[in-house]
Amino acid sequence: MPVLKWIRYGAWAGVVLVSFVGAAILLGWWQVDGPGRSPAGRAAVQGVPAIGGPFTLVDQTGRTVTDADYRGKPLAVFFGFTHCPEVCPTTLVQMANLTGKIGAAADPLQILLITVDPERDTPEQLALYLQSFDPRVVGLTGSRQQVDAALAAYKAYAKKIPTENGYTMDHSASVYLMKADGGFRTMIDYHEDEASALEKVRMVLR
Amino acid sequence: MSPVGRRLVIAAGLAATLIGAASGLLVATRREQPAAPVLSGLSFQTADGRQLPGESFRGRFVLLNIWATWCPPCVKEMPSLDRLQAMKGSGAFEVVALSIDRQGLEVVEPFFRKTGLTSLAIYLDREARSMPGLRITGLPTTLLIDPNGREIARWPGAREWDEPSAVAEIDEHISKARQTVR
Questions:
Q1: For residues B6 and A88, which has the higher predicted lDDT (pLDDT)?
Q2: What domain count does chain B have?
Q3: Considering only CB atoms, which chain A residues are within 8 Å of B1?
Q4: What average pLDDT does the segment A75-89 reach?
Q5: Are A88 and B137 within 8 A, CB to CB?
Q6: Contacts B69 to A, Cβ<8 Å
Q7: DSSP state of A80
Q8: pLDDT digits (tens, 9 = 90+) for B52-103
Q9: How many other C-beta atoms can be found within 10 angstroms of the C-beta atom of residue B76?
């Protein structure tokens, strides 16, 4: 009975396939999360990446500031620019939403917007722009080199993209949450849902 | 065929059926999930200080534009939204431009006056609750909402809303939605 024979082969092939997939999943788990994890892998999971570092920039009042000026305060740092030609980033609004929800407990948090477009975002332009938001937000600009150094410290990137009538900036859109001692705590992703973003802000405030 | 072989074949067949049924069920439930009414829970403050619940826009198609005076592309497309409302606004269709400016009327009213917007009404969402509520990550974002309050289209970024191609696209979404509702 050739038909049954083929069915039998097919069934055995299925059994082999299922056991192979099962074994692969088990092996993968063993290596990545299970007891077989390498010491280096453990460090990568538990260690803190070196994000953040020294910067010297100019705030929206024209004052020169460094990272040391904000030591002792948890920070929410993100990169942006005010001349949005097609779609405006809304991180400032989202941060205001989060701190508004947390209430007075969020007062110690210092929100820093570092422009990636220092050519157009002068201290005056930043001051004008920031009027539309939470008055506690500090806008930072500086020379191209100063801004690039801050970008490098935060392992962030920014790139000029020419458009029909000028240019726009493509840049990292995450919010870096830094501890009061200046160390990196965690980051909020651009598309992160509100509940988990709230939890992260609360975490850095503790 | 030996009894063991037969049992194996039956077991394999059974397993395949189970897996097939389970994945079919997964796909089916994912597809059948209806879109939730997007405006529930949102609040629209009018120029005279009234708070309209999102449900008050039920029964008509709404082109909901989320904007702010600090957003240059939003500012640029506002006159075209005003013209679209003048052209198409009716009991069955409304362009609703919702400002998320924190200062609210204080900055929106002068902007309307300066820009000469006369057909659009002022709607304010000073706490920007529409941002997480509608999962908006950039401004402007424009949504087309059907009379049952469900989102049927979304356009991130600015456009000229009264251009024939834009109007045709909106009309197409509306007629498609009318067919499926009936």
A1: A88
A2: 2
A3: 1, 4-5, 8
A4: 91
A5: no
A6: 132
A7: E
A8: 999 999 999 999 999 999 999 999 999 999 999 999 999 999 999 999 999 9
A9: 15
User: How far apart are the CA of B178 and the nearest CA of chain A, in angstroms?
Assistant: 31
Is A1 in the B-facing interface, judged by CB distances under 8 Å? yes
User: How many Cβ atoms from other residues are within 10 Å of residue A74's Cβ?
Assistant: 21
Q: Pick from A12, A87, A190: which is nearest to B139 by CB?
A: A87
Contact B132 A97 (CB under 8 A): yes
**CATH fit for domain A56-205, picks 3.40.30.10, 3.40.50.1980, 3.40.640.10, 3.30.450.20:** 3.40.30.10
- Average pLDDT over every residue of A151-178: 83
Residue type, B126: R
pLDDT in tens, B19-34: 777 776 666 655 544 5
CATH number reported for the structural domain that contains residue B130 in this entry? 3.40.30.10
Q: Output the pLDDT for position B32.
A: 47
Cβ(A134)–Cβ(A57) below 8 Å: no
Which of B8, B127, B158 shows the shortest C-beta gap to A86? Answer: B158
Is the confidence metric ipTM above 0.85 for this complex?
Answer: no
Whole-number pLDDT of residue A20: 87
Q: Are residues B166 and B81 in the same domain?
A: yes
